[in-house]
Amino acid sequence: RNCMNTVPIATSLPQVVAVYGTLSDLLSVASNKLGIKATSVYNGKGGLIDDIALIRDDDVLFVCEGEPFIDPQTDGRPHEELTGSHTDWLTLNVGGRYFTTTRSTLVNKEPDSMLAHMFKDKDAWGNKQDHRGAFLIDRSPEYFEPILNYLRHGQLIVNDGINLLGVLEEARFFGIDSLIEHLEIAIKNSQPAEDHSPISRKEFVRFLLATPTKSELRCQGLNFSGADLSRLDLRYINFKMANLSRCNLAHANLCCANLERADLSGSVLDCANLQGVKMLCSNAEGASLKGCNFEDPSGLKANLEGANLKGVDMEGSQMTGINLRVATLKNAKLKNCNLRGATLAGTDLENCDLSGCDLQEANLRGSNVKGAIFEEMLTPLHMSQSVR
After folding, report:
1. Are strands 15-18 and 2-6 parallel, antiparallel or unpaired?
2. pLDDT tens digits, residue range 132-187?
3. Can you say whether the dihedral through the CA atoms of 252, 256, 258, 259 is positive or negative?
4. CA torsion sign, 39 to 45 to 49 to 53?
5. Helices (H), 163-275
6. What is the pTM of this model?
């Protein structure tokens, strides 16, 4: 092709040269003819030519040694200074991948972003350019593409296989604040729904068998609601804040288990071994604890301080030395229970059935026994115990 090539920075006279082969050949010929080291070729509108196939026969080309394109008809003034706009085209080299866009795309939608500050004014940040004149940005191109598209049309579109967390990190890096919220919502919606379904007996038994005997088993906060855990060996297991409502724990061995703040409402614990159990502030309202054993021969006392035991049925349970301080036992059935040496200070025993109970050496100081039934007690209740 015959192409006219001018070099504003080297000479004011245009030269006509014959060009064959590749773009490299063109640059070589231009270098020899014009006496410069030509590195870039632009068309008459300032578009960077990166393939000789893009050149038409009647094109006027501008060759330079790497300087930005300057139209000689503008007396050397940058295009945006003449038009007052920032819509000139530019190319970004992001991690080795080229993106062509306008300055207004990078600036207008998010004027306070890093990209806006980088390209609001030419060379304000001293942006580095590669041999093709593209601005170098050392970030991931696959995560940058959705960000550029968002700046173009305001929609978050991410192709399959692109990690949203990576795009979010890039949005934070470039300060695209309005996109960050969209991405956080998209990430949340893409997460699988949390499984809050209760753990079954089969699942829990498998879990127990897979755990070494000497290992501490932590079931804190887990959901066992309605599960059949009867007759299982649950010694020393941490059930703190677990949901055990409506569970069947009859005949289970809960020796020294931690049931602090656990929900045991409506559960069945008949004949369970509760030696040394910790049930501080637990909720066992309406539960059945008939015939349970809280008495530890070694002297370790069960602790139910502050527990909600409204309406529980604890008939016939062994509770020697148990700590029920400030617990709520309103309307509970405690008939024939062994409460010898129990701590019942500040306990609400209103309307409790305590008939047949052994309360010898029990501490009832400050407890509420309004409406409680004490008939047929094995040990007379002395006034020195300061009940109210």
Report:
1. antiparallel
2. 888 899 999 999 999 999 999 888 888 888 899 999 999 999 999 999 988 988 88
3. positive
4. negative
5. 164-174, 177-190, 201-209
6. 0.50
